[in-house]
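Bug #77: duplicate submission created two jobs. Keeping one. Sequence:
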Amino acid sequence: SPEMRTVEWIDGRVRMIDQRRLPLELVVVEFDDYRDVARAIQNMTIRGAPAIGAAAAFGLALAARHSHAASREELLADLEVAAQAIGSARPTAVNLSWALNRMMRAAQAEPAGPAGIVPALIAEAQRIADEDVDINHRMGAHGAALIQDGFNILTHCNAGSLATVDYG
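Kept job's structure:
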């Protein structure tokens, strides 16, 4: 929707729809601590594998942004701690570990210290979110080409915009 995504990075904070409050009310929550993002994943504030993956990536970007690490090694150590905390929030969510691993690879690939790693991780998290939207648009187009009038469609998991970043 043009208004907002299920989960997004706004002004250095992670913003998401509190899915526990739906359908009776639309409540948007914002976090600037990765531990709160981990809790949101754990307590079902956010659900749906792709949405959880993006939330995890943004959570790790928050951890990088708020780390007081003076060196590259210290920051990577802080990120390992944060990734462990976020990853244990919903161990069965495949996108969760996938996104965290991808973010850690991006951090390790950045040769600079914290000044380079932080923006690299924010950009990588945004890429993960944007790719999900793109993938779902393409999946929808492929599916639409196969569906004929009168077909009954049964969806299984991750069906709809709330389970994904934006377009489901």
